[in-house]
Each structure stands twice: as structure tokens, then as C-alpha cells.
Amino acid sequence: MLKKLLTISMLTALLVWAVGCSESPTETNNLTENLNLNDATGGYRATDEAPGFGDSDLMADSDESEEYDDPILLSGALDSIIEDPASGYYHLRILWGQMELDTSVTELTDWTGSLTVTRGGLAIRQVIRFERGQDAILERTDRNLIEWESFTNVHHDGIGVDIFVPPAATDSTDSATVDELVSVTFETGPYSRTFDMAELMALDTVVYLDDADSNAVAFHAFRLDKVPCARGFLAGRWGYNDEGHGIFRGFWISKKGRISGFLRGHFGVNDEGKNVFFGKWIGERGRFRGFIRGHWKQHPNHHANPNAVRHAGGRFEGEIIDANRRKIGVMGGKYKSHPQFKRGFFQGRWKLDCDEEEESRDEGL
């Protein structure tokens, strides 16, 4: 996805001007007010908020994902697999390029490539940061194959895909199972990788390429049962504000890849010397959904070599609790912090307990 540096500079200037003219600073600057690292909820309250916490930057970033009407779904080519209750059903989210905004990258990287499944079918649900006139999904003629053209420099592109795998066939003569190992392959010039379906049950990985531009590929996936517990993805920025406080903010993404809410929070070391984080989750229209809290840990080999230092980051793991401090789910993923907040990022997954009622919620799960 080509993003002209001039365009970015102009947008940044406009945002700075808008903040300067507002009587209320952006949420990023206010995030640490009245918050702490020791209370049960870190100081957050079970109250509704403005959409996106009233954060103009966060709302602007929420436009990165675009729903995609895959003609393969409309053609009926997947109907028999989707309608079979014995079929496996997975969702895979892939991002490639710069995981964090880096305006110093001026050279384009060509990510033109494909995604294939050896048996079954693929349905595109979202395209992420695709730029019209440059990035595109190519015409689909095979339910097993997705092809695209994609170029990145300062940021990333990506896709969200549903994967359907029919049950194993049997030999009609002896009823023996006849089934090859089903696999999914991501193939581009900079990086390629094949996963078996067992890996897609709960996939959470970010692969850094050993190139001059710090490109990376992020894979997140899980299996969606026919009557699933609510689950999805997390994505956003993780770093430090102007006062040096650790903060994060981002998107609560549904199992179908749609941005269905927002989260914000802070991290640091509490009075007991533990690395902790706290935050708040709201729905798409600002309704309170829950608190998040947990621990973060820097990668143990972050000083092992120059490349490791360059990509220093770690993992975060925690729980989701309701207004009554009752645990209702879990969440976790990977982060890379940065002194400049917009240069850090996090990617992860969340899952609610199966007894949680979702029908009355507005997340679109």
C-alpha cells in the first residue's frame, strides 16, 4: 500500500492543528490521568464512552479494514462445504509490511502473492489497508486459491479469510479413511510459509524479515466451531506517551475480522515489582463491555543480537472481567513498544467464556 510521505505529513499536521484547537486534548495525552498499576481495574470505571474513546487518531485508524464481497461465496462454489456440519471452519488474518507506521521507509516492497488450501475452499472477508489503483484482489476462478497484488512502504496490507475444510473422504470398498494432510500456504516474494490445520487451531505469530526495512508478516488464526464461544482479534499501538508512561490503544475485532469495538490501557511495573497492564473494552458505539488486566513480559533474547534488539518486543497475557470483577474471558498476544507511541504495535486474540450471552451486544460477533 503506497502512502505518500507528503500525504502523511499533511494529515499529521491537520490532526495536530485539530488537537490544538480543541478544548479537550486527545485521549492519548489524557490516558494516564487518575490511573494506576495497583487497583483491581487499574483505575478504570465501568462507564460508557464516546466511540473510540473520543480519540481522533484511533477513529481514523479504524478505517484500515474494508469488508469484501467475495464472488466465490456468491457463486455457490462453497455451499456444499459450508452446509456440511462435519466441515472444519477457520478464520485466518494475515498482515504484511510494516506492523508499525514508519515514515522513514521510502522503497516499495512487492508482496504480490497468493494463499492456497490443498482441500476445501477460501472466502475473503476483509482487505486491510489496500490502496485503490495499486493493491487489488485478482479475479477468483478457483475456490482453493486467492491471489493479490500488493505493495507497501510505510505501513502494511493484509487480508482476513475464512477457510472451510470438508470432512475426510472414505474408500467405498473398505470404509478406510482416505485423506491427505490439509495445509494452507501463504506465498509472496519476500516470505512464504505453509501451515497445517492443527497450527491454525490457535495461531499467534509475527515473523520479522531480515531486510533493511524491518518488514514483517503477522499470522493470527483460530478454529470456529459451529456453535463457537465468542472470540476474535486485537490490534493497535503499544508504546510510551510524551510523559514516558506506557500506554496502548487499539481495536477489538470480531471473529469475522470486523472492527467491533475499542480498547485502551496502560502498562508498567506495579508496587510489587510486577510487569502489569490494565485497560478498558468498549463496543463500537462506546458501550462499556469489560475491563482487561494481566501481565506483560519482554522477549528473553531481546539483546541477543542486533536484529533481536531492533525487533525487541514481548508477549502480554490477561483476562477480561465484567463490571462486577467477574472473569468472563481471556486475551493475549505480542507487542513491540517504542518511545514514539505511533511506532509501537500489538497484535493478539481474545476469547469470551462460552456461557457469556452475546445476543444483546453490539459488537457484531
List the helices and strands and how they pair.
Layout: H1 5-21, H2 27-30, H3 56-61, E1 65-67, H4 71-75, H5 79-83, E2 88-97, E3 109-110, E4 113-117, E5 121-128, E6 136-137, E7 145-149, E8 151-152, E9 156-165, E10 169-170, E11 177-178, E12 183-188, E13 192-196, E14 202-208, E15 216-223, E16 231-240, E17 246-253, E18 259-269, E19 275-283, E20 288-298, H6 306-310, E21 314-321, E22 327-336, E23 345-352
Antiparallel strand pairs: 1-5, 2-9, 2-15, 3-8, 4-7, 4-12, 5-9, 6-7, 10-11, 12-13, 14-15, 16-17, 16-23, 17-18, 18-19, 19-20, 20-21, 21-22, 22-23
How would you describe this structure to a colleague?
This protein has 2 domains: 156 residues, no CATH class; 159 residues, no CATH class. Strands 16-17-18-19-20-21-22-23 form an 8-stranded antiparallel barrel. A 6-stranded antiparallel β-sheet has the order 1-5-9-2-15-14, with no helix packed on it. The protein starts with a helix and ends in a 13-residue tail after the last strand. It has 365 residues and is mainly beta. 12% of the residues lie in helices and 42% in strands. The N terminus and C terminus are likely disordered. The protein is built from 6 helices and 23 strands. The protein is globular, with a radius of gyration of 21 Å.
